[in-house]
Design brief:
- With about 270 residues, the protein is of the alpha/beta class.
- It folds into two domains: about 70 residues, no CATH class; about 200 residues, Uracil-DNA glycosylase-like domain (Uracil-DNA Glycosylase, subunit E, 3-Layer(aba) Sandwich), CATH 3.40.470.10.
- It is about 45% helix and about 15% strand.
């Protein structure tokens, strides 16, 4: 609903509605079914403009109408979105997948890690980064006190494995990017870590080589974004491990700096 409030749409389900013909305010009441239909219609339109995809929303009318914009059931929204992803046929990758790979992690992530797409093992298990690259990624994250089990959420640009582990094409990334944007919007991570060129290009709409993107901070809808090498690149070329570690240390400093600023701001308020 914040999407509509930002655009001047201030209809609330229990407020008085203006009767334009009489220039007076009349009490407007809606049945639960009518209220649900209005909200679902607004959400579907919002999804189209935000992500280019339709996301199913589970709306509870038991809470006061004033709470609808602020009470965001992340688990329910993610589950609904995951169901939609599992049925997606927007590009040709669905034809060769065993299953979709939606994402894994906590619902209130400090960091959202974004890769390019599932590999063979991910396609088999239905989880992101569980093969050799995933094992290295877990070690990289642990080195800066991050984990998919405690404070991270991990996802990919595309949710289906490209055949023979090839890179996803630009059109495949474009077909799937709306789902990732929806995940980000639902989870609202404090930071984003893009691992690899494909992830950075697709999310940030850049075309620079990874050598010019790594170690730099960007912004995505107000969320700081940091870029480093994909773990698979480090497995292919061990010489990249040192610069990747420098990237991670820089990312850790960025997070610590933000935490320090927030702590000081909290103390000032008190």
């Amino acid at each position: 609903m914040e999407f509509w409030l930002e655009r001047g749409f201030d209809l609330a389900m229990s407020e008085k509605a203006l009767n334009e013909n009489e220039s007076t305010y009349n009490e407007s009441t809606y049945t639960d079914a009518e209220a649900r239909q209005i909200l679902e219609t607004l959400f579907l339109i919002e999804d189209f403009f935000r992500y280019g995809v339709r996301c199913e929303h589970k709306i509870s009318l038991e809470a006061p109408s004033s709470a609808i914009p602020s009470t965001w059931d992340r688990k329910a929204h993610l589950e609904a979105l995951e169901t939609q992803v599992s049925q997606c046929t927007a590009c040709g990758l669905w034809q060769s997948r065993s299953q979709t790979v939606f994402g894994e992690g906590v619902l209130d992530p400090k960091v959202m890690v974004i890769g390019e797409g599932p590999g063979m093992e991910e396609d088999r298990q239905g989880l992101p980064f569980v093969g050799a690259s995933g094992q290295l990624l877990d070690k990289m994250l642990a080195a800066i006190d991050l984990s998919r089990h405690n404070n991270c959420y991990i996802a990919n640009i595309v949710k289906c494995r490209p055949p023979n582990n090839r890179e996803p094409s630009p059109s495949e990334c474009d077909a799937c990017i709306g789902y990732l944007r929806a995940q980000i919007d639902i989870l609202q991570p404090g930071f984003i870590l893009c691992v690899g060129r494909i992830a950075a290009h697709s999310l940030l709409r850049l075309s620079d080589p990874i050598s010019r993107l790594r170690g730099r901070s960007f912004d995505f809808q107000g969320i700081p974004v940091h870029v480093t090498f994909h773990p698979s690149a480090l497995l292919r070329d061990t010489a990249l491990k040192r610069p990747a570690w420098e990237d991670l240390k820089q990312f850790r400093s960025l997070m610590e700096s933000r935490a320090l600023k927030e702590s000081r701001a909290t103390k000032k308020v008190k």
